[in-house]
């Protein structure tokens, strides 16, 4: 089933592909490749929580100050242009892609009122010709009616190794054991929170990428998407 398009395109239906999974599973790479291949819009929902975590840090807002966090999340002027993310018209990608920003995102994201505030904005990203939505709760909450749902995962060890390689290639001096511990901590927080925890939707296709090259996963997902979009439009 497709979602009704918001705004002037309300009469048409918008195909939505939900891609969830833990950090480092390859879901970001798969989602952006899919969006580029299909010419669809791309929603990186993690970027919203990362930006909020960054704003909280930059404005010295305590994680216990829910009222201010909600106000900050309601006032965020975020825009995605292809895979680039902008805050108040300025690119913010480099600032929010650090390990520290990921941890802050994971700390602000359990707050129910914050999630509720960001819900409408995320749903409004479903515009023609279609949306690839990447996150933790795309298939379970935000786009529970999505046409195709995937849960992309990999062992914590494989994810730590991938992250280690990426950071080393970017010239960062990192410790793999510390990365592994941080990944496990973040998984535990994301999986065990009361609202919208990280888990596969009942109707999601689960793909374990531990022993796969990410390009293989892209090909597999694309093939399944073509079939499921064909099914849902027919
Ligand atoms: O996908 P990511 O690593 O950019 O996400 C950063 C954090 O944001 C993640 O640890 C939990 C939170 N998040 C969330 O709660 N819900 C989402 N849909 C996406 C991310």
Structure description:
There is one protein chain. With 234 residues, the protein is α/β, with parallel strands linked by helices. The chain has 10 helices and 10 strands. The chain has a 5-stranded parallel β-sheet. It has a 3-stranded antiparallel β-sheet with strand order 5-6-7, covered by helices on one side. Strands 1-2 form a two-stranded antiparallel ribbon. The structure holds 2'-deoxycytidine-5'-monophosphate (DC). The site of 2'-deoxycytidine-5'-monophosphate has 14 residues, from helix 2, helix 5 and helix 9.
Provide a quick synopsis of the model.
With 234 residues, this protein is an alpha/beta fold.
CATH class: Alpha Beta
Main sheet record:
5 strands, parallel
Taking pLDDT < 50 over at least 5 consecutive residues as the criterion, the unreliable ranges are: 7-11
Q: Describe the strand arrangement of the main beta sheet, using strand numbers.
A: 4-8-3-9-10
Bulk shape: globular
CATH superfamily: P-loop containing nucleotide triphosphate hydrolases
Report the helical percentage. 40-55%
Strand residue percentage? 15-25%
Cα gyration radius (Å): 17 Å
Any idea of the CATH topology? Answer: Rossmann fold
Distance between the termini: 10 Å
State the domain count.
1
Strand tally: 10
Q: What structural class should be given to the helix and strand makeup?
A: alpha/beta
Order of helices and strands: EEEHEHHEEEHHHEHEHHEH
Number of helices: 10
Give every kind of bound small molecule, once each: 2'-deoxycytidine-5'-monophosphate
Which architecture does the CATH hierarchy give at level 2?
Answer: 3-Layer(aba) Sandwich
Mean pLDDT: 91
């Amino acid at each position: 089933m497709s979602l009704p398009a918001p705004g002037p395109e309300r009469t048409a239906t918008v195909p939505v592909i939900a891609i969830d999974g833990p950090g480092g599973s390859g879901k970001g790479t798969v989602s952006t490749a899919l969006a580029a291949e299909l010419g669809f819009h791309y929603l990186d929902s993690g970027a919203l929580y990362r930006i909020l975590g960054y704003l909280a840090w930059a404005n010295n807002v305590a994680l216990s100050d829910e009222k201010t966090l909600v106000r900050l999340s309601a006032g965020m002027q975020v825009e995605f242009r292809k895979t680039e993310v902008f805050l108040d018209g300025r690119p913010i990608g480099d600032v929010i892609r650090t390990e520290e920003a990921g941890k802050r995102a994971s700390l602000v994201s359990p707050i129910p009122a914050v999630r509720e505030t960001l819900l409408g904005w995320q749903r409004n990203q479903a515009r023609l010709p279609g949306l690839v939505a990447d996150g933790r709760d795309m298939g379970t909450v935000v786009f529970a009616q999505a046409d195709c749902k995937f849960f992309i995962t990999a062992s914590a060890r494989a994810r730590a190794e991938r992250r280690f390689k990426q950071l080393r290639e970017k010239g960062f001096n990192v410790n793999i054991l510390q990365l592994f511990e941080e990944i496990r901590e973040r998984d535990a927080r994301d999986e065990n929170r009361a609202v919208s925890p990280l888990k596969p939707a009942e109707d999601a296709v689960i793909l374990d990428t531990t022993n796969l090259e990410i390009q293989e996963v892209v090909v597999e997902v694309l093939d399944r998407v073509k079939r499921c979009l064909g099914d849902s439009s027919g």
